[in-house]
Write a structure and sequence with these properties.
Length: 279
């Protein structure tokens, strides 16, 4: 009987200590052995890559910050980041071919892109570790390396400032990257406006003409934008997949209006017609 009573006492004391223990943050850390590629080209166009680990990145200087920009977009509270300045990383390389942007290739086939001028203007950081508040749910894609906007900086509220799960930084020229799409966007004022919305919020997952990521569907193959039924299907599916409460926290709806989505469809329709003329 004494053993039973002692056992119960130990059980309740343990429960008491557990209940009083401080709540721990959820740490998102892929491990220091993960390898990242940084790719540059010389003045002759020859491409070469360096391989970096978290330890090597953090030797450039690491600090801990918060980001109200990230919390607002992800509906989190007090997420905490260990970060390295993106400008410090850029400064390690001599850009000889007019590169003015960084292509961000990700482990999950997402592809972001940032003008180097944005890194300078908004003092962008790369997170090597993410700590979410207690009880926060983490989507599978939310892993370092992650672009982070520091508090006190206010870039446009757009998907491109939230690129995560980065495996490669590749220096490129914006004119080369967007050129094939920008040419088609000149078809009309509406198509041009749609291109701007698309490149800042959609191209990362839905590639076009060899540009962008392959995480999402090929939109021109799925939707008939020349038909009203196809446009309505696109709008319905967009709302179902990208609303604020979706399970994967891909809330693109917060970045675009209904009118902007209409301009996106104008741009995609112009692209489709351009392809049909060539075939």
């Amino acid at each position: 009987m004494r053993q039973i009573i002692c056992g119960l006492l130990i059980f309740f004391v343990t429960i008491g200590f557990s209940a009083c223990a401080p709540k721990q943050k959820k740490v998102v850390d892929p491990g220091s052995e993960r390898i990242y590629r940084i790719t540059v080209s010389d003045r002759f166009g020859r491409i070469s890559s360096e391989f970096w680990t978290i330890d090597k990145l953090e030797k450039l200087g690491v600090k801990t910050i918060f980001s109200s920009y990230f919390d607002r977009a992800m509906k989190y509270d007090d997420a905490e980041f260990k970060v390295v300045s993106l400008l410090k990383i850029i400064s390690q390389f001599e850009l000889k071919s007019g590169e003015d942007a960084i292509l961000l290739n990700c482990f999950d086939d997402y592809q972001g892109i940032l003008p180097i001028s944005d890194a300078l203007k908004y003092d962008l950081q790369l997170a090597t570790k993410i700590e979410l508040g207690f009880g926060s749910s983490k989507p599978d894609w939310l892993n370092p390396l992650l672009v982070v906007v520091s508090d006190g900086k206010e870039p446009p509220f757009a998907e491109r400032f939230l690129t995560a799960n980065i495996r490669e930084l590749k220096f490129v020229r914006l004119s080369d990257y967007y050129g094939p799409l920008r040419k088609i966007a000149k078809d009309s004022k509406e198509a041009s406006q749609g291109f701007e919305v698309y490149k800042n919020n959609c191209l990362f997952c839905h590639s076009l003409k060899g540009r962008g990521g392959n995480k999402g569907a090929r939109l021109l193959q799925v939707y008939e934008f020349a038909k009203e039924t196809g446009q309505q299907k696109f709008l319905n599916n967009f709302k179902n997949s990208h609303h604020k409460d979706n399970a994967d926290k891909q809330n693109v709806e917060q970045f675009v209006t209904r009118d902007q989505l209409q301009r996106v469809m104008d741009f995609l329709l112009a692209l489709k017609r351009s392809e049909e003329k060539k075939s």
